[in-house]
Design a protein that fits this description.
The complex is a heterodimer of chains A (141) and B (436). Chain A has one domain: Heat Shock Protein 90 (2-Layer Sandwich), CATH 3.30.565.10. Helices cover 36% and strands 27% of the residues of chain A. Chain A has five helices and five strands; from the N terminus they run E-H-H-E-E-H-H-H-E-E. Chain A has a five-stranded antiparallel β-sheet, covered by helices on one side. In chain A, a hairpin with a 3-residue loop joins strand 2 and strand 3. The longest helix of chain A is centred in the middle third of the chain and has 22 residues. Chain A is globular and about 45 Å long. Chain B is an alpha/beta fold. Chain B folds into three domains: 54 residues, Alpha-Beta Plaits (2-Layer Sandwich); 277 residues, no CATH class; 79 residues, no CATH class. Chain B has 17 helices and eleven strands. In chain B, helix 3 packs across helix 8, helix 4 packs across helix 6 and helix 14 packs across helix 15. The chains are: A alpha+beta (141), B alpha/beta (436). Chains A and B meet through helix 1 and helix 2 of A and helix 14 of B.
């Protein structure tokens, strides 16, 4: 029996706070159409929204790829931004490198990565200063 | 079951209703607008927008009143906004008795009870915001599309349902009749409340026997009102439930947003869906523009009706208590018990491509591929409300790719090369540029 797989991909534009969240909304709509449970969809939306916002704030934009197979939804977020020097520090709740300007706009509270970790079943960050950041998450059925 | 129907004689198969339907529940097939019943939420947008009056809202016949030994009229508060120069809602109540009803019970009173119960729930670990449960079209929208909002919906039945339960119970106790000899008639401003009366989403069985059309009752009331004296009436601020913002006003200082019109409701729910820590305490949502006064079974312009109701409610609140308020007749505990829903709302999506996730994914991929080949103009000529809808219809087997009028463009292109006139939709962009 051939494995069915669905791939969605989105380009995230850096610095555009108005359009931020559109990719996670589109993903949510697509996952509803294939009939995934609401709990799965909710977790995917949270993880993806947080990742999208990070790409908008820090990553200078990037790419979001969502793959669905019979076991899980995998989200891969890749950007060519400055990278994360200390990943474990970045995972602490409330730790943020966002500028004051960004914080004044209501973002950069230091909850993005912790929330992504909390709502996903598998979570991995691959990042080096100057080489961008890739976050891979999966939410299992 | 739905309460919106098509009059095939009047339908011309145009694209007006398919484009105005917020749940994309209408398709034109063989020149007639067909409703996909499981997607219809009875909002009435198609009834309001059809130029040819081909979409109609159907309600129950008023003649059923004579089937019962004792009949009770439940006039939705919007009824009192329909009459010019009405000074006292008691005149309408008396005229309803003149129409053949044995008694009248005002849903506006039940609305006041619901408001009091809602106020007591706000803040106490209640989800933020609590969402009004009064509009059945909104409830159906939420169960179809906004599963995250289901826990936010107020766990209270609607004022009309509460009024029906209280009125029947009181009538049975007073008359000694069997419950089924008592007929409860709701005078409805909209098809959604007609459907809800027949198939309540949160009760195990209907509590309203028949839901009749407000416009039908209106024309019967007019002559009777000329001859009627006012009778005591008790509703005050509950009259405000008929228009957008009225429900919120009864909640005092709570942070309320009131949203009328289904497009606005969808926008609001999309913003809130999945959001944590909302600043709102209460969300008053109504499918109709301006609130229930905008229902498509009403007669008067909704904003005029709202202006009248505001005046009537203010006069009632400052005037002497015109009648013994049933709020005092029923104990608070009894009301709270009666207002509890018997059933939870259940997420019932209507746009899943296949029951099997694997096949649904395959279909979604096919839909996306097909969308690439469609022009993206959403012209509606194929009978679907937009290209995305046609793409889904084709993959679901409801339509053909060749239903797209632009697919014939390639076939007729040779005609353009021969200098034969082609109407704008069939011209390539470059042809027009050259012409300009």
């Amino acid at each position: 029996m051939p494995m069915e797989k669905l791939t969605l991909s989105f380009d995230i534009i850096g610095g555009n706070f108005i359009a931020a969240g559109e990719a996670s909304s589109a993903t949510k709509a697509a996952l509803r159409k294939i009939g995934l449970s609401n709990d799965i969809i909710r977790r995917v939306s949270i993880c993806m929204y947080e990742g999208e916002i990070n790409q908008v704030i820090h990553g200078g934009g990037g790419k979001a790829v969502i793959e669905v197979d019979e076991r899980r939804v995998a989200i891969t977020l890749t950007d060519g931004g400055p990278g994360i020097p200390d990943v474990s520090k970045a995972l602490e709740e409330g730790f943020s490198t966002a500028t004051n300007e960004i914080r004044e706009q209501g973002f950069g509270a230091g909850m993005g990565l912790p929330n992504m970790k909390r709502y996903s079943d598998e979570f991995e960050i691959i990042s080096k200063p100057g080489e961008g950041t890739t976050v891979v998450m999966s939410i299992r059925f | 079951m739905i309460s919106v129907r098509l009059d095939p004689e009047k339908c011309r198969g145009c694209t007006i209703c398919i484009k105005r339907c917020p749940t994309e529940a209408i398709r034109v097939r063989s020149g007639r607008a067909k409703i996909i019943k499981e997607r219809c939420i009875d909002c009435g947008n198609c009834v309001r927008s059809c130029y040819y009056h081909a979409k109609v809202a159907v309600a129950d016949p008023l003649s059923r009143v004579s089937d019962f030994t004792h009949s009770i009229a439940l006039p939705a508060p919007s009824l009192f906004g329909q009459f010019k120069n009405l000074e006292d809602p008691g005149v309408v109540l008396r005229a309803l008795l003149g129409m053949g009803f044995s008694e009248v019970f005002e849903p506006a009173l039940a609305a006041e009870m619901i408001s009091a119960l809602t106020a007591s729930k706000l803040g106490k670990n209640a989800p933020k915001p609590l969402v009004s449960s009064a509009c059945p079209a909104v409830l159906r929208l939420i169960t179809q599309r906004f599963p995250n909002m289901i826990p936010h919906v107020l766990d209270l039945i609607s004022p009309a349902e509460l009024a029906a339960k209280l009125a029947r119970g009181r009538a049975v106790a007073r008359t000694g009749l069997r419950p089924r000899d008592v007929g409860v008639f709701f005078i409805s401003p909209c098809p959604a409340k007609v459907t809800e009366s027949h198939q309540p989403s949160r009760l195990d069985a209907p509590v309203i026997d028949y839901a009749v059309s407000m416009s039908e009752v209106y024309f019967k009331l007019l002559p009777l009102m000329k001859r009627s004296q006012a009778m005591p009436r008790a509703a005050r601020d509950g009259l405000r439930w008929a228009f957008s913002g009225g429900e919120s006003r009864l909640l005092g200082d709570a942070r309320c947003a009131f949203v009328g019109g289904l497009d606005n409701v969808i926008g609001m729910l999309e913003t809130l869906d999945g959001e944590e820590d909302s600043e709102l305490d209460y969300l008053e949502l109504g499918a109709c523009p301006g609130g229930c006064v905008g229902g498509c079974l009403t007669v008067e312009n909704p904003f005029t009706a709202a202006a009248r109701l505001r005046r009537l409610a203010a006069a009632a609140a400052s005037g002497p208590d015109a009648g013994a308020s049933p709020v005092e007749v029923f104990s608070q505990d009894f009301i709270a018990e009666q207002a509890k829903p018997a059933r939870e709302l259940i997420y019932t999506p209507t746009t899943i491509l296949d029951r099997d996730v694997g096949r649904a994914m395959q279909k979604l991929r096919q839909v996306e591929e097909l969308k690439e080949r469609l022009p993206g103009l959403d012209c509606g000529s194929c009978g679907a409300p937009g290209c995305h809808a046609l793409a889904e219809d084709v993959i679901l087997g409801w339509a053909e790719e060749s239903d797209c009028i632009f697919n014939v463009r390639d076939g007729v292109e040779y005609a353009a090369n021969d200098g034969i006139y082609l109407p704008p939709p069939f011209r390539r962009r470059k042809d027009d540029e050259q012409a300009l």
